[in-house]
Amino acid sequence: MIPITKPMLGENEAEAARRVILSGWTSQGPEVAAFEREFAEYVGAPYACAVSSCTTALHLALLAIGVQPGDEVITVSHSYIATANVIRYCGATPVFVDIEPDTFNLDPKQLEKAVTDRTRAILCVHQIGMPCDLAAILEIARRHSVPVVEDAACAIGSEILWQGQWEKIGKPQADIACFSFHPRKVVSTGDGGMLTTANAEWDAKFRLLRQHGMSVPDTVRHGASQVIFESYPIVGYNFRMTDIQAAVGREQLKRLPEIVSKRRELASRYKSLLAEIPEIGLPVEPAWARSTWQSFCIRLPAGSDQRQVMQAMLDAGVATRRGVMCSHREVAYPANTWSCAGRTGGCACTAASCHCLRHSEEAQDHTIILPLFPQMSFEQQDQVVKSLQDALRVAG
Ligand SMILES: *Cc1c(COP(=O)(O)O)cnc(C)c1O
Questions:
Q1: Residue 346 needs a FRET pair 20 to 30 A away by CA distance; which of 85, 210, 234, 247 works?
Q2: What is 11-98+105-254's CATH number?
């Protein structure tokens, strides 16, 4: 069986976890602080703050910006549901913009008409590791004085050509970037997340909010020679990462360059192998983007049945996933909980089908994700391609 992915965890990660467990300090402490420093250095960010997941990172990003009930946040429906959920945690309304069919990323041409006087933030996604068109998005956002948060859950190690230089996603090019360390992503700490920003005030807010709104963290009280009483100026959360997770993350960071280069090699090999199959739609990497290829997503030939193709491949021992979901089609998203760029112009969208989001829906229904992981052999990759060819013959 060829799995969809496989985290690259080994003896180094196990040893790091063991070291922390035996140290006696397992919750957020010195390992988290070291992981933050090393992560910030890797992406080139002034500040990095570790949290329990990318979902909690995104939630804190919106809270730090000041997103409130009654506000609107522009994003894509075509993403993992956490992207839209965090907007609703703040009591705000997600306003969905359609994607570009070939990059699966927010279409900047659809962005401007979604901006209203209630727009409080733009939450763009580097979907499955492919950098979105940040230059075009930021041009519009800056003109309207709206901050931009990057959902970079899958983009640890992705790069963007920025003012003539290749930069890591997370520097951040926009205002705040949020990353995930879930096992389905590029590197993993079991679960975990990270926020990066150049804004010292926001970074301080993340730190306060992730630990119950506590004025003096326990790490500071622990090392103090004088008694310190902490206070709680605001209502915060427990969104902490543990030191066990952070120690694993530090080992994962060391592997990251190798992981990304292996993924990019396999993705480029997929592209040449799949070019032989007519009518397969290949993912496009713009000239200014370098993806981690967290997922390799292809468009099936017109008329082929997504579920049947996936089943035939599963029967042949190859795991696949359907393309990225659309939040607006889920039961948790009845029509009164979201909006789209066309709604004000009289869009006749229903929850099941929204014309304004037709490329998002098409991508969900007609694309599949192929196995891709750094340990994958060329033979396994050939087997995936052959099973796809066979499946298309039966279900095509
Ligand atoms: C996985 C993912 C998330 C959620 O990340 P967690 O760390 O599991 O909370 C959010 N957004 C996108 C685009 C994702 O792919």
A1: 85
A2: 3.40.640.10
Ligand 1 pocket (Cβ < 6 Å) reads 53-55, 79-80, 82-83, 125, 151, 153-154, 180, 182, 193
Nearest ligand 1 atom to alpha carbon 55: 9
Residue nearest to atom 1 of ligand 1 (CA): 153
CA of 229 to the centre of ligand 1 (A): 36
Ligand 1 atom with the smallest distance to the CA of 128 is 15
Residue 303: CB atoms within 10 A of its CB come to: 9
Mutate to test the pocket of ligand 1, among 4, 76, 80, 126 (most ligand atoms within 8 A of CB): 80
Q: Are 55 and 246 in contact (CB under 8 A)?
A: no
The predicted model scores a pTM of 0.97
Going residue by residue through the chain, which has 396 residues, state the pLDDT in tens, using 9 for 90 and above.
999 999 999 999 999 999 999 999 999 999 999 999 999 999 999 999 999 999 999 999 999 999 999 999 999 999 999 999 999 999 999 999 999 999 999 999 999 999 999 999 999 999 999 999 999 999 999 999 999 999 999 999 999 999 999 999 999 999 999 999 999 999 999 999 999 999 999 999 999 999 999 988 888 888 889 998 999 999 999 999 999 999 999 999 999 999 999 999 999 999 999 999 989 999 999 999 999 999 999 999 999 999 999 999 999 999 999 999 999 999 999 988 999 976 655 566 665 678 899 999 999 999 999 999 999 999 999 999 999 999 999 876
> How is the chain split into domains, by residue range?
11-98+105-254, 256-395
Three-class DSSP category at 228: coil
The letter for the amino acid at 195 is L
Return d(Cα 124, Cα 147) in angstroms, integer.
11
Residue 353 Cα to ligand 1 middle (Å)? 24
Contacts of 235 (CB under 8 A, 6+ apart): 213
- 256-395 CATH fold: Aspartate Aminotransferase, domain 1 (3.90.1150)
Q: Please report the atom of ligand 1 found closest to the CA of residue 294.
A: 15
